[in-house]
Structure formats: structure tokens, C-alpha cells
Design a protein that fits this description.
4-stranded antiparallel β-sheet, ABC transporter transmembrane region fold, 599 residues, alpha/beta, 2 domains, 11% strand, single chain, binds adenosine-5'-triphosphate, 6-stranded mixed β-sheet
Length: 599
Amino acid sequence: MSRQFVYQDDELIAKPFNWTQMGRLLGYVRPYRKGVAKVVFVMTAFGMISRLAIPLLMSIAIDRAIRPKDGPGSVSLLLWLVAGMLFLYGLRWWAQHYTIHHTNVIGQKVIFDLRSALFKHIQSLSFRFFDKRPAGSVLVRVTNDVNSLQDMLSNGVVNSVIDIAQLTGITIILLALNFKLGLAVMITVPIMFVVSSSLRKRIRHAWQVVRIKQSRINAHLNESIQGMRVTQAFAQEKENMSFFDGMNKSNIRSWNRASALNQTFGPVIEVTSAIGTLILILYGSYLIQSGIMTVGVLVAFVSYVGSFWEPITRLGMMYSQVLISMSSTERIFEFMDEKPAVPEKENAQRMPDIRGDVRLENITFGYELDRPALKGIDLDVKAGMSVALVGHTGSGKSTIINLLCRFYDTIEGRVMVDGIDVRDVTLESLRSQIGIVLQDTFIFSGTIRDNIRYGRPDATDAEVEAAARSVRAHDFIMHLPDGYDTEVQERGNALSVGQRQLISFARALLADPKILILDEATASIDTETELRIQEALGTLLEGRTSFIVAHRLSTIRNADRIIVLDHGVIVEEGNHEELMKRPGHYRNLVDAQYRFLSA
Ligand SMILES: Nc1ncnc2c1ncn2[C@@H]1O[C@H](COP(=O)(O)OP(=O)(O)OP(=O)(O)O)[C@@H](O)[C@H]1O
């Protein structure tokens, strides 16, 4: 079986641990540094100090109140010490509660900012970027990759600071209580670091593989759902399912592998801590028997060593979390670093109110450098003129439109609107004055009213209805269950092709652009709707410069100027009568249409 789906995005991004990127990521925490500092202060001042003081009180209780070397024990001292310990436990509980609550709030804010920044950036990227990537894989970065940083950013940063402080505190206390015993217990730490750092690389690589597999699943899901009608029409469900199963299984395998590797971190630390405790008991009892150390100090030691491994375990887990997040961080910043292929000049001005003169000067352009889609195109269109672009499929009609809206930049030549190069003005000021009606009319989920209002959100209900009436859409809208408030789902599947087209006409009319671009629908519709659309088109084009990728003879014939394209070159130009007088591409095209209609 040939492989029908190929998702080539996302090769392994195998870079070493990157402090610069980590620094960049932490840059998103910066705005909340005051909050982080507060949490760290509360946790170290109250949480950590109480943690460190409890074993000391315990040791005093044993050596002075319960079993002093000289004289009897003291119940009142014991009660005071127990009360002190209870107070410290309470303080510690409050500090922990405070920390968890605030770190979560900060983490959520950081994730919110990161996701917004990523989405904002993706929206600024040009068509070229989306040409190269399946929608699903873009989706994964905004959802999965950002989510996977959530844990690290919410608890990780704060906990690491607290853990490092606690570790330092305990180390000092252990060495101060008994320098030799402290050193003997800590001898295992370097061993642990050597073992865990060799695991580091493998774990990171394994999680990268998981992310890539997930990204492919999402890309495939996205494509499958969008293409479901075709899949069902060609009865390809089984094939599709087996392909999906393969992806799913491969994802599970790589997940299991990564997860197994990840779990080796815990045991490494446990074994090391067990060895440490063993050393402590053996060497500790020797020291007690030799009279160098008291039982109370050994009890405190046991308690400290317990809390010594705790931050190390957490830091170890945090470290593997950082490694996992590293691949997501890399993938997020890879998108963030993507520059728009159509950049805005730094000193770009706002496009003044457009009159509608358009000039294309000696334009050459290709989506790929070695395959030009347009060659030496010259076109001078005066304001208010309607231009029909005709030609065989792939001749370059849509490409002209893409350049006019500056979805791509020309390789040679320039596009001028009212005598201004489109590269000299801001994209927003240019595009907001150009209306586009695409063949595949995109209806967003929401009401019909919202959809018509899309290009001019401040339009009143009366204006929305007036626009719909002008393009003859009002009647059918009123027949929908809730009229203008009828909810349509994404892509407007419940509407017919003709109805979607009329809604997009109303949308364009309401936005009232001086330049209108229209990719005429090729789908055949009934004669009545066709007539209605033609009338609506007449209203829509009035007083605007228009470029129409035209398929219907009636539209072409009504245009002031017809441009015939062939393999990216203008081969004929004129109005219908002029072009019909001489033999050539256009006359052949019209004759072919007549033959088709009369057949
Ligand atoms: N995003 C893209 N990436 C690479 N090549 C592209 C892209 N879009 C179009 N092309 C190529 O550019 C050439 C011109 O395509 P264009 O879409 O302008 O044709 P068209 O005349 O509008 O065709 P149709 O009537 O079928 O829509 C074609 O050879 C096409 O394969």
C-alpha cells in the first residue's frame, strides 16, 4: 500500500540544553517577579525556617527534657518544646498553602501570556508559513506545547528556588551538627549527579519523539476531519483508520519508552538516599558509642537527612521536567522566531483612503524560486474599473490577487495602489481597504449577523440588514429559523453554496472597500440563484475597482477589461467585443463554453 499521508513537519530538534531559551522562557515570568519574590519570601521565612527548626527542638527535647546526661528530665520544658513544634507545624502548613495557591495563579498568568504572544505572532505570519505546515501541527504548538510548560512555570520556578534554599540550609546545619557525619552522608550526591546526567540526554530525546508523534496525529486528525466527506465518498474509512491506528500505536510506544526512562530518575535518587541513610546509621551509632555524639543529635540528623533528599528528589524531577519542557520550549520559540515573509517596513505609513487606481509594474513572482507563476506582468487599472482575470487552471489568476493583497511579495517589479508601493504601507491599512470574496467562502461559527459584520464590527443591525438586502440575501436569511440570529457552525456547512456566496457579498459590501477582489465560485448553481448572484454582483461592484477571477461568461462579459493569462503571462487584453473580433485564447475559451452549454 502506498503511503497516502506524509507529514514532514517537525524533524527532531536536537539541540543541547539551551540556557538562552530557558532565559527567554523565564522572561515571561519576569512581569510577575514581585509575586514570585513574595512567595519565595513566605516559604523561606516561615516554611523553611520552621522546617529546619523542628528537628533542633526535637534534639533539645531528647537531650535536655527526656534523657539529659546530668539530672532528671523536665516535663515543663518538654511541653514548651512540643508547643513550639506545634506552632511551627502550623506555620509551615500556612506557608505551604500560601505558596501553592500563589504559584498556581502566577503560572496561569504566565501561560496565558505565552499562549497569547504565540497566537499573536502566528497571526502575523504570512501565507508562505502556512503553505509549509499542516494546520494540526500549528495547533499542537499553541495547545499541547504551551500546556506542557504549565507545570514547570507554575510550580517549578518557585519550588526550585525554595528547594535550593532548603538544601543549602540543611547542608549547613548537617555540617555544623557533626562535620564528619555530614560529609559522609553527602558523599552519595556526586554519584547521583553522574548517573542522572547520563540519563538526561536520552530522556529529552525520547520526549521530543513523543511530541513529534502527537503533532503528526493532530495534523492527521485535522486533515481527516476536514476531508471527511471525501473520505466517506471514496469509501476510504478503513485505509484511513489503519493509518491512524499505526500513528496511534507508534505514539503509545514512544510515550511508554519516554515515560519508562523518565521514571528511572526516582529510583536513582531512592537508592542513593538509602545508601546515605545506611551510612548515617552505621557511622552515627559508632559516634554515639564513642561518646562523640548524643542520641538527640542523631535523631535530628535522621530527620534532616530525610528532608535533605526531599528537595533533591524534587529538583531531580524538576530537572527531568525541564528537559521535557525544553523540546516544547524549542518548538514554541522556533515559531516565535519565524519572521513574516511579508515584513512591514519600520517606517511604514498608513495607507491613505484609497481611490482605487491599481498598477502592476513588470511583475515576476514564483512560490518557489525556480518555478515562476507570473512573468513580466504589466497592468494599469483606473479607479472604478472592473477587471476579469481569465485563463486555464494554474495560469496565475489567484497569484495576481495574492500579490495585490500583499499575501506574498513580488520577486521583481512592484504593486502600486494610488501610486503608492504596497510595501511602503502598513499591512492592516492596506488590507482593511481591500475587500475579498473567496471562492471557498469561510463562514465562522456564530450568527449570520456576526458573519456579515466580520469586516466592520461596529456596523449597526440596520446597516447589516441593508447590506444583505442590497445583495438579495435578506429573503433567504429571513427564512432561516432565527433570521439574522441563526447560529451557523464553522464553515457554514448547513448553508448552500449560493447562500454562502450571498453572505460573503453582504460581508464585503458592508466593509465598503474601494478595491474588491472576487474569486468567483465555480460550483454550478441553479439558474435562479445564478441570476440573483449576478444581480448582487452588479450592486457589489458599483463604484469600486474590482478584480474578478471569473468563471461565468456573464461575469466576464460585463467586465470593463478582460485579462487573459497563460502560464503566468498576459496573452490578451481588452473588452469582450474587442477580444471576440480576433482569433485567440479568449475566443477559443468562449467558443468552448458555448459548446459545453449547448452539448
Ligand atoms: N501556495 C503555493 N505554493 C506553491 N505553488 C503554488 C501555490 N499556489 C499556486 N501555486 C502554483 O502557481 C501557479 C499559479 O497558480 P494560481 O493559483 O495563480 O493559478 P490560477 O490561475 O488561479 O488557477 P485556478 O483557476 O485553478 O485557481 C500554479 O502552477 C500553481 O501550481
